[in-house]
Every structure is written in C-alpha cells, then in structure tokens.
Amino acid sequence: MSLQKKQSKVSLNIKISSDLDFRLKRARKAAREQGLMFNVSKEVEKFLEKEVKKG
C-alpha cells in the first residue's frame, strides 16, 4: 500500500435557503442515527468535479 499526500483544501462559502439548510441538517441527523455519515462538503465536491469535467 503506497501513501498518498493529503491534498490541501480551501473554504468555499455559499448561500443556501433556510429550507435547504433545515433539510440538510435532517439528512445528517438521519444518517448519524443509522451509523452512517452524510458529508455535504464531499457531496458538493463530487458534484462540482462532475460539472467541471462537462465544461
């Protein structure tokens, strides 16, 4: 197994509606209750990578 250098991250601040914020909090809570993890940053990064590849 080879070691990989950890890629540095930068902060991305976005504005979302209070309704979406509430729904995301509910999704994170539900995931924790099932022993899972819902990482919004990871999901947003995956989405943005896919969109950049399209362009």
Could you describe the 3D structure shown?
With 55 residues, the protein is mainly alpha-helical. Helix content is 56%, strand content 0%. The chain has helices at residues 18-33, 40-54. The longest helix is centred in the middle third of the chain and has 16 residues, at 18-33. The model has no long low-confidence stretch (mean pLDDT 91).
Notable characteristics:
55 residues; mainly alpha
Order of helices and strands: HH
Mass-distribution shape = extended
How large is the share of residues in beta strands? under 5%
Q: From the helix content, strand content and strand pairing, which structural class follows?
A: mainly alpha
Q: What is the CA-based Rg, rounded?
A: 15 Å
Major sheet:
none
pLDDT < 50 runs, ≥5 residues: none
Total number of helical segments?
2
Residues in helices, as a percent range: 55-70%
The separation of the N and C termini measures 34 Å
Please count the beta strands (DSSP E, at least 2 residues each). 0
Return the average pLDDT rounded to an integer.
Answer: 91
Describe the structure concisely for a colleague.
With 55 residues, the chain is an all-alpha fold. The chain has helices at residues 18-33, 40-54.
Layout of secondary structure:
Elements (H helix, E strand, L loop, with lengths): L17 H16 L6 H15 L1
